[in-house]
Automatic annotation (TrEMBL):
It comes from the Eukaryota. This is F-BAR domain-containing protein. The keyword Metal-binding does not apply. InterPro entries: AH/BAR_dom_sf (IPR027267), F_BAR_dom (IPR031160), FCH_dom (IPR001060). It comes from Ataeniobius toweri. Keywords: Coiled coil. The lineage of its organism: Eukaryota, Metazoa, Chordata, Craniata, Vertebrata. Residues 11-151 form the F-BAR domain. The keyword Translocase does not apply.
């Protein structure tokens, strides 16, 4: 049975531990990661909205292409009514997809952007105030421990 390198060298485990001085950087980086995740999800919403808009336009074009054909055809009765209902359902579906597009762009993306703006405060020279505060807090909290560890 093989053992991992961390089991062979307990000193290595201590250096990777969150509690060791300076090993909090992954936690501090979560602020930048969360900010980027907000940008990514807004981009995802915008891409989905673009797809919904395209689908709605294609349904409208398709429906507009077939309406004159159906209206000028010699069909009558229930067959004509069924075909007209089929085309009108495509119009309603196009309207639904257009409203999904508007909702994704105007409501959902705006909500994420507002939350992002309220939560993350950029500094003048780059980075975020929250990251600096967290890093300063960790540094101060670990200072006595780091001194004792050096002794």
């Amino acid at each position: 049975m093989s053992t991992s390198s961390s089991e062979n060298n307990p000193e290595d485990v201590n250096h990777r531990s969150f509690w060791m001085p300076g090993n909090y950087h992954r936690t501090v980086k979560r602020t930048e990661d969360a900010f980027q995740a907000c940008n990514d999800i807004v981009a995802c919403f915008q891409e989905r909205a673009r797809l919904e808009r395209q689908y709605a336009q294609q349904l409208n074009e398709w429906s507009n292409k077939w309406k004159p054909v159906v209206d000028s055809s010699p069909l009558y009765g229930s067959l004509l009514k069924a075909w007209q209902c089929f085309l009108s359902s495509a119009d309603r579906l196009a309207s639904l997809h257009a409203s999904i597009c508007r909702s994704l762009v105007s409501e959902d993306a705006d909500r994420v952007r507002t939350w992002q703006k309220d939560t993350f405060h950029k500094k003048v020279f780059g980075g975020f105030k929250e990251s600096q505060d967290i890093e300063t807090g960790f540094t101060r909290a670990q200072k006595p421990w780091a001194k004792r560890l050096k002794k």
